[in-house]
Amino acid sequence: MQFIPRPGTPVTDIDTPSLVLELDHLEHNIEVMHSFFQNRPQKVRSVTKSHKSPDIANLQWTQDGAVPYGITCAKISEAEVMVAGGAKQVRMIEQVVGSPKIERLMSLAKRAEVLALVDHPENIKALSEAAQAFNVKLGILAEIEIGINRCGVQPGQEALDLVNIINKSKNLEFKGLSAHEGSLFIADFEQRSIVAKERVQKILDTRELLEQNDIPVEICGAGSTSCWNIVGTMDGITEIDPGSYALYEAQYTRLIPDNGFIPALRVLTTVISKPTTDRLVTDVGFKSCSIDKGLPEVDWPSGLKVNRLNSEHGVIDIIGSEGKQLRLGDKIMLTPQYQGTTVVAHERYIGIRNNKVEAIFPILARGAHY
User: Fold this and answer.
1) What is the mean pLDDT of residues 38-66?
2) Helix (H) or strand (E) holding 91
3) How many other CB atoms sit within 10 Å of the CB of residue 317?
4) What is the predicted pLDDT for the residue at 122?
5) Which of 32, 123, 152, 169 has the most CB atoms in a 10 Å sphere around its CB?
6) Mind listing the domains of the chain with CATH numbers?
7) Are strands 348-353 and 356-362 parallel, antiparallel or unpaired?
């Protein structure tokens, strides 16, 4: 069992490899995002699939500018954890298909307001039958495909036809539309805006078509971390659903340097070998720090560059004077390129402030992939 440090423990005394959360940075990111929407009609419904922590979700859904106690989840198991942690309204961003998952969705709908996502008549039929059997009224969003070639019906008439099926289905209540414009790693803000607005306009045009056919659209959701301050200013969008902004990560700072957020997620590692003057080895490998989007960056000390991560070893090149001074047992702080598969490798976040431990956040939904 990994040693869990007490509050006040210096960061250099934390056992490794450990997932470290810089609380000042986390709070900064949440403040930047939510303060932007305090006085806007659009609100933030944060995605929890990256951080998987009810503690972090609670910091998000209680902010001004948020959908109060509202979150967005990809998996039923994740939604169950979040509702147990205090969420009152859950919007699914993945279709719930198959009897086991649908039955759990209905059980969840008795404890919180649930918004299911659909793009196919067969799924609508299955949800309607289950909702009747469980005696629940289930909110439904239609997913619109706007440019990433994944799930969703085509905007326009195809979407209208699907919504008409929803409205004819017992125990289902059409609530609105959902779309994902994708993570747009386009450095130039104006160019990023052009692509995002072109895609999102498709869901807005679909909303207009529905309203022309006397179908009210309560929710019209889109807007990722890369486009939060673009999509979130478009008339007709009611809420955005960003996820990565809270923890942030190195790939964002590298590819979209003007996005307003700073990495809060780190991985702490220990020097276990220094076989040559220009190379050292640490106890972090790709099992505890993702390399899905590239090698992690060294946050501190300076004079180091990650050469590669094997399964349990990190090979680091010494490229500067501060790196040359490291000895066995010294600590190195890394910033992963991608948070998703880094977070699920750990049982907890160790929250630090001023280089001392302040809080422990269990990652209660770390295995919630079903």
Assistant:
1) 98
2) strand 89-92
3) 16
4) 98
5) 152
6) 11-20+260-362 (2.40.37.20), 23-247 (3.20.20.10)
7) antiparallel
User: d(Cα 289, Cα 266) in Å, to the nearest integer?
Assistant: 9
Question: What is the rounded CA–CA span in Å between residue 295 and residue 250?
Answer: 10
**pLDDT tens for residues 85-144?**
999 999 999 999 999 999 999 999 999 999 999 999 999 999 999 999 999 999 999 999
Tokens (6 digits) for 5: 């440090």
- Predicted pLDDT at 19: 98
Q: Would you say the pTM of this structure is higher than 0.85?
A: yes
Nearest CA to 259 out of 293, 230, 221 is that of 230
> 12 is written with which tokens?
């250099």
| pLDDT of the residue at 3 | 79
What mean pLDDT do residues 246-259 have?
95
For the record, the structure tokens of 293 come out as 């989007």
Residues in the chain: 370
Alpha helices, DSSP H only, in the chain?
A: 23-36, 54-61, 76-84, 99-109, 121-134, 157-167, 189-212, 228-231, 250-255, 321-324, 340-343
For the CA atoms of 257, 258, 260, 265, the dihedral, rounded to the nearest 10 degrees, stands at -10
